[in-house]
Design brief:
- The complex is a heterodimer of chains A (114) and B (255).
- Chain A has 4 helices and 3 strands, in the order H-E-H-H-E-E-H.
- With 114 residues, chain A is α+β, with helices and mostly antiparallel strands.
- Chain A has a 3-stranded antiparallel beta sheet with strand order 1-3-2.
- In chain A, helix 1 packs across helix 3, helix 1 packs across helix 4 and helix 2 packs across helix 3.
- By secondary structure, chain B is mainly α.
- In chain B, strands 1-2 form a two-stranded antiparallel sheet.
- In chain B, helix 2 crosses helix 5, helix 6 packs across helix 7 and helix 6 runs antiparallel to helix 9.
- The radius of gyration of chain B is 27 Å and the shape is elongated.
- The chains are: A alpha+beta (114), B mainly alpha (255).
- The interface between A and B is medium-sized, with 28 and 32 residues.
Chain lengths: 114, 255
């Protein structure tokens, strides 16, 4: 049975996108490029746009339309104080979680029961 | 009620390819039928158009960027966007009904004029039996509910909603058919077409105005919140920069 990646991806991506935006004000495609180079191969506009909307609605990021060299105006995103707070709690929980998962799976990442 | 997109959006939508336009239209229909806030809806459609244009400029496929699951994408958008408030929804539905009933008399007048010639020369007055009038009202209701079904059809209307609609249709037509027994056919009504059209026009305009103001209030409260946060963020950044500068100066002095 195939593993449903979307559930795990959703929460993780939210944190990663926030982290990217926290580094500098950026736009959708740049976020996708950064995510892809970091290893999120399947990421596209369709994946990140709803997440960006959710973050916007939650007040974690703010957007601004600025001119783009590729034609239409681009939406640039900047992290807010709420976003920074969320990001810090996301990262501390993620560290805790990844340690717990690594503990269970062991160093080799084996999932075979002994 | 949104019979059409804003002219600016329509113009920019025309600039994208036909395939991309189809995808955007599918998504926008879904968003509309699920009562997304009107202003946020326009913003979303504008974002999608921008996305399609950027994809084309980069030589990429917009459909691939959105992904094969358009329904899932639209659902995610709806989940994360503000919905219409209940007064907006009531006004939106009321606008549909007003539009349909507003069309009632002019359409009937024209039909009479074409097929029977009764309207000709009789000044702009619509004359019909009360039964015909009621039947036309029933047709209007059916048309309006049909529009709702059509708008939801994009990704399949919920079965319960469809069931309710069908039940309403059946009940309405059964009731209308049996009306002849109860409503006297000799009662005739006379309506001035101009007064009718003007009245409904004004009501429609008022409805649209109040709904638009309400949608803008909901959307701009969000934007206002964002602006406040942004100014706070900028202020914080500039505060940090000042602090950094002070620290650097102190270091220089120590050296």
């Amino acid at each position: 049975m195939d593993f449903d990646k979307s559930q795990l991806m959703r929460g993780t991506l939210e944190g990663c996108i926030l982290k990217i935006i926290s580094v500098r004000t950026t736009y959708g495609y740049e976020i996708i490029e950064l995510l892809r180079t970091s290893g999120f191969k399947d990421v596209s506009e369709g994946t990140i746009y709803p997440i960006l909307m959710r973050l916007l609605r939650a007040g974690m990021i703010v957007s601004e339309l600025l001119p783009s060299p590729l034609g239409p105006k681009r939406k640039y995103y900047t992290i807010t104080e709420t976003g920074l707070e969320y990001l810090s709690s996301f990262y501390s929980y993620w560290t805790q979680l990844s340690t717990a998962v690594a503990e269970i799976f062991g160093e080799e990442g084996s999932c075979n029961s002994e | 009620m949104q019979f059409r997109m804003k002219r600016v959006l329509k113009k920019s939508l025309a600039s994208v390819s036909q395939d991309d336009r189809k995808i955007i239209r599918r998504i926008s229909t879904y968003l509309l039928s699920h009562h997304m806030n009107e202003v946020v809806y326009e913003e979303t459609v504008s974002d999608l158009i921008g996305m399609a244009e950027e994809c084309r400029a980069r030589g990429e496929d917009f459909s691939q960027a959105i992904g094969p699951d358009i329904e899932g994408f639209s659902r995610e958008l709806i989940k994360n966007a503000p919905r219409m408030s209940w007064p907006e929804r009531v006004l939106a539905d009321l606008q549909w009904f007003l539009y349909c009933f507003g069309m009632l008399v002019p359409v009937m007048y024209i039909v009479n004029l074409i097929f029977t010639g009764t309207g000709a020369g009789a000044q702009l007055t619509f004359t019909a039996t009360i039964l015909t009038f009621i039947k036309y009202c029933v047709v209007c209701t059916a048309v309006v509910t049909g529009i709702f079904i059509f708008r939801r059809r994009g990704f399949g209307a919920p079965k319960l909603t469809l069931g309710i609609y069908i039940a309403v249709f059946v009940i309405l037509f059964t009731v209308t058919d049996s009306l002849e027994r109860f409503v006297p056919t000799d009662i005739v009504i006379h309506l001035d077409v101009i007064i009718w059209v003007v009245t409904f026009g004004v009501l429609l305009l008022l409805c649209w105005l109040i709904r638009r103001l309400s949608a803008m209030t909901t959307a701009y409260m969000r934007v206002l919140g964002q602006r406040l946060q942004r100014s706070f963020h900028i202020h914080r950044d500039s505060g940090d920069t000042d602090k950094d500068k002070d620290n650097e100066k102190e270091k220089d002095n120590e050296e």
